[in-house]
Write a structure and sequence with these properties.
alpha+beta; about 150 residues; 3 helices; about 30% helix; six-stranded antiparallel sheet
């Protein structure tokens, strides 16, 4: 068990275990972290120079949405995570969209295959998952567009 973990390019998925423990799926293995998911997301945002609320407001402005927003963890490496349900829910998992290889419908659920072959089944519909992946992709596209063509005047 570890005290801390920072979301990075090897992160696949964060799954809540209890109010104070999270299971992190990483390209290199799985880890139990003695923090809740929100704490891991917050310290990861801070590590990369922002905060969760700052990243949330940025995503809200870029997407013109405010529900189940993907979050940019690292702008330079373009690491984006997305919630499986409301981030306020104690059952919310966070998926690192950068490492999703494929996904499929399994009855009423969805199964994701990550780039290292690990699979995980989520209790969300395929439509909801596709919508979340689309939001994350749109966020990345709009971020890149602004980086390449910044506004010079208000």
């Amino acid at each position: 068990m570890y005290d801390e973990y920072f979301i990075n390019e090897d992160t696949l998925l964060l799954v809540p275990i209890t109010k104070n423990k999270t299971k992190v799926y990483d390209i290199n293995g799985t880890y139990i972290i003695k923090k809740n998911i929100f704490e891991i997301v917050e310290i990861s945002c801070q590590y990369h120079g922002s905060s969760y609320i700052g990243r949330y407001i940025g995503a809200k402005n870029l997407l013109d949405m405010d529900y189940k927003l993907p979050i940019i963890i690292d702008e330079v490496k373009e690491i984006i995570i997305l919630p499986t349900c409301s981030p306020k829910s104690e059952n919310c998992c966070w998926i690192c969209v950068n490492n999703v290889d494929n996904y499929e419908k399994i009855k009423k659920n969805s199964k994701i295959k990550f780039i290292n072959g690990v699979t995980y089944e989520f209790n969300i519909s395929i439509n909801s998952l596709e919508n979340q992946i689309m939001r994350a992709t749109m966020l990345l596209m709009r971020l890149k567009r602004r980086k390449n063509n910044p506004k010079k005047f208000g």
